[in-house]
Specification:
The structure is a single chain. With about 425 residues, the protein is α/β, with parallel strands linked by helices. It is built from twelve helices and 23 strands. The protein folds into two domains: about 160 residues, Lyase, Ornithine Decarboxylase, Chain A, domain 1 (Beta Barrel); about 260 residues, Alanine racemase (TIM Barrel, Alpha-Beta Barrel), CATH 3.20.20.10. The chain is globular. The structure holds ligand LLP. Pathway: Amino-acid biosynthesis; L-lysine biosynthesis via DAP pathway; L-lysine from DL-2,6-diaminopimelate: step 1/1. This is Diaminopimelate decarboxylase. Its cofactor is pyridoxal 5'-phosphate.
């Protein structure tokens, strides 16, 4: 992916940096981010989610991977930012991300999170439900502020890899079903609000989607909904946010869609359908997270040793695990790995890569063929740029790894490695 190559020492090189030198300088485990690839992905979205006659916006879903340096990069690339918590919002504000380009999500935003968002004057709050609307109204009155919002709706589409299925309409914890009978009643509440300005709707049909048709189906269902609220509730939709979910390659089981084609087709469909239905074309937004950062991330580990079990399993033990990448344990996610200091050697043996946590499920990769691995080798797990650092934990009191950005042979530390002192930071001895 991106700027990955093999150098003349037979080592993996990313962004012009020898991965083995990176481990010597920054230690292991280490998250390495190919900055050019993240920027390239931002540009692919910006350049291809565009069509004459439609206003568009690409919003990076920061839950995938966020820190101050990521905020700066996303802002430099001209994308907007989706945050789902006070912590993500705080990071964006500290990084001086343009506030008018921040969108705030969440099915249970606390009053404090809403106050923070209102006071900062962020671009849009995505309202989840009626109670939140009432709370927001109250808070805006108290603070003497106004706010533009979108309403999160649930279009009843549950997209899965390779297929999409209709779920029962009311089982999602997010948003309001587009099929609910009292939707006009709810919209009326927005319309009479003095403080809250409803610009349109938001939906998100799922994540790691490989079935292009799911996106198109989402658009069709949403446009029918826009037509219905126009006719039944007299509501003209100015903005339509279609969420994220574009699937990426992690391993051979993944077959990503042709992104450029899909983005264009989505907008063509919006144009065609709105004309057919005689609707005003809304501004259309998308919120990719994983597809911006996943393939740009690599985690480097040092091998502590190997073990052949009585049952015939061949383990490689690395100095990280489910604390820095919980996705295999959590979702059965499949990753590819390589031996970063043995890139020119032939694959010979079948291994299972296990972490160091006190848990049998702490496996990073099952059954992978690699060159013969020994203690002190450096193992690279690929495509760890999304939902790894952001989902990392301190289980077993293991400090979180450092994050470096690499580009043109330069490595920039963007998050320091946690220390044992950091682990104790909030502990009190009474
Ligand atoms: N917008 C909304 C409202 C979302 O809920 C999400 C993801 C996104 C955008 C971005 O979706 P993406 O483009 O990244 O697929 N932890 C899981 C993924 C959870 C996704 C939650 N929502 C994982 O590691 O696979």
């Amino acid at each position: 992916f991106g700027t990955m190559e093999i150098n003349n020492k037979g080592n993996l090189q990313i962004g012009g940096c020898d991965s083995i030198n990176l481990t010597k300088e920054f230690g292991t485990p280490l998250y390495v981010v190919d900055e050019e690839l993240v920027r390239g992905n931002c540009r692919t979205f910006k350049n291809n989610f565009s069509l004459e006659g439609i206003e568009t916006e690409v919003i990076y879903a920061s839950k995938a991977f966020l820190n101050l340096a990521v905020c700066k990069l996303i802002s430099e690339e001209g994308l907007s930012l989706d945050v789902v918590s006070g912590g993500e919002l705080y990071t964006a504000l500290k990084a001086e991300f343009p506030v008018n380009k921040i969108y705030m999500h969440g099915n249970n935003k606390t009053a404090n999170e809403l106050i923070m968002a209102i006071q900062a004057g962020i671009g849009r709050i995505v309202v989840d439900n009626k109670q939140e609307l009432e709370l927001l109204e109250y808070l805006c009155e108290e603070l003497d502020k106004e706010i533009d919002v979108l309403l999160r709706v649930n279009p009843g589409i549950d997209a899965h890899t390779h297929e999409y299925i209709q779920t029962s309409k009311n089982d999602s914890k997010f948003g309001v079903s587009i099929f609910s009978d009292d939707i006009c009643c709810l919209l009326e509440k927005f319309q009479i609000s003095r403080r809250i300005n409803l610009k349109g709707f938001h939906c998100h049909i799922g994540s790691q989607i490989f079935e292009e048709k799911s996106f198109y189906q989402g658009i069709s269902v949403m446009l029918e909904f826009l037509d219905r609220v126009k006719k039944e509730c007299d509501f003209i939709t100015e903005e339509l946010n279609l969420g994220g979910g574009f699937g990426v390659y992690y391993s051979k089981v993944d077959t990503p869609i042709d992104l450029k084609k899909c983005l264009k087709n989505m907008l063509l469909l919006v144009k065609e359908k709105t004309m057919e239905m005689r609707l005003t074309i809304p501004k259309v937004m998308i919120e990719p997270g994983r597809s911006i950062t996943a393939n740009a991330g690599t985690t480097l580990y040092e091998v502590g040793g190997t073990k052949n079990t009585y049952g015939g399993k061949n383990y490689i033990f690395v100095d990280g695990g489910m604390t820095d990448n919980p996705r295999t344990a959590l979702y059965g996610a499949k990753y590819e790995a390589i031996v970063a200091n043995k890139m020119k050697l032939e694959n010979k043996a079948m291994y299972t890569i296990a972490g160091k946590c006190c848990e049998s499920g702490d496996i990073l990769v099952k059954d992978i063929v690699l060159p013969e691995v020994e203690r002190n080798d450096v193992l690279a797990v690929l495509s760890t740029g999304a939902y790894n650092y952001s989902m990392a934990s301190n289980y077993n009191r293991i400090p979180r790894p450092a994050v470096v950005f690499v580009k043109d042979g330069q490595a920039r530390l963007t998050v320091k490695r946690e220390t044992y002192e950091d682990i104790l930071r909030n502990d009190l001895l009474i």
